[in-house]
Amino acid sequence: MTRGRAFLLLLALAAGVGAYVWFVEMPRDTTAADTTGEKLFTVDATQMQEVVITNEAGERSTLTKRGDRWTLAEIDGAEADPTEAGNITSGLAALETQRVVDEQPPSLAEYGLEAPRVTVSFKDASGAEQTILFGNKTPTGGDLYAKLASSPRVFLVGAWLDESFNRSRFDLRDKTVARFSRDAVTNVTLTSSAGTVSLAQSGGEWRLTAPVEGPADGAAADAIVNAVSAARMQSILDGPEAAAVNFARPAVTVAITAGPTRSVLEIGGAADDGTRYARDTVRGLVFTVDAALAGELTKSPGDLRKKDQ
Hints:
Layout: H1 3-25, E1 48-54, E2 60-66, E3 69-72, E4 78-79, H2 82-94, E5 99-102, E6 118-124, E7 129-137, E8 143-148, E9 154-158, H3 161-165, H4 169-172, E10 185-192, E11 195-202, E12 205-210, E13 214-215, H5 218-230, E14 235-237, H6 239-243, E15 252-258, E16 261-270, E17 276-280, E18 285-289, H7 292-297, H8 301-304
Antiparallel strand pairs: 1-2, 1-6, 2-3, 3-4, 5-9, 6-7, 7-8, 8-9, 10-11, 10-15, 11-12, 12-13, 14-18, 15-16, 16-17, 17-18
């Protein structure tokens, strides 16, 4: 490398470091230096009763706590994903400032906060509401500009929070295809191109009950239960779109009894994106699932009987 090219490279590196210091490390308001790491909210995650998210696309989602469950108001009180709800509430409770940028900014537009990209509000048990606004990322992309609705102060938070709070209704919705307790399962019936097979479990032992009776392969039976329990919706269909799907002759039907709960999952034809249409007949939901699930549930009596040792 020539001396001239080396000098230009060093100059470019210096410029990059200088830009980082100017845009991120240099405080706009020196009176705010002691607020680094300041906790934004004093409320505990368990005290939150409602969370409202307006994401980057402008979609509003209202999470409402019902006992120990979270529901989505915009989808007729549909169950919310408990992990998503827990991540959001615990994330809000733990929020801290990385650094204060300006205590009294003359304009919010330069931070993307005049029209915030993402807005998150929450209410505690007393009904008190607090709101945080998220704007643009910093020039280096490592942080986000943010502010509380109740204060003019602009501060930085970690850019990773964008993924935590910029959530759609589908992201927040419970995508379990069939609800039951795996530990309480007593009966399973499969109907597919391989025929109809029924299994019963008692005391940790599985048996075939139809079309023949006899000991069943416990691992194979457990695999069916686990496959249904672990399956997640890939998309959810509503209204006319859901009504248009034909389930007159499902490719696979699995009925599971777990204590007082009975779940029936039907898997139909292929969707345009390579997934397969499915329906939870108990909840009346139509959705798509991974195409591999149909194969995992297409089992003959021979596949499930206990093999001689």
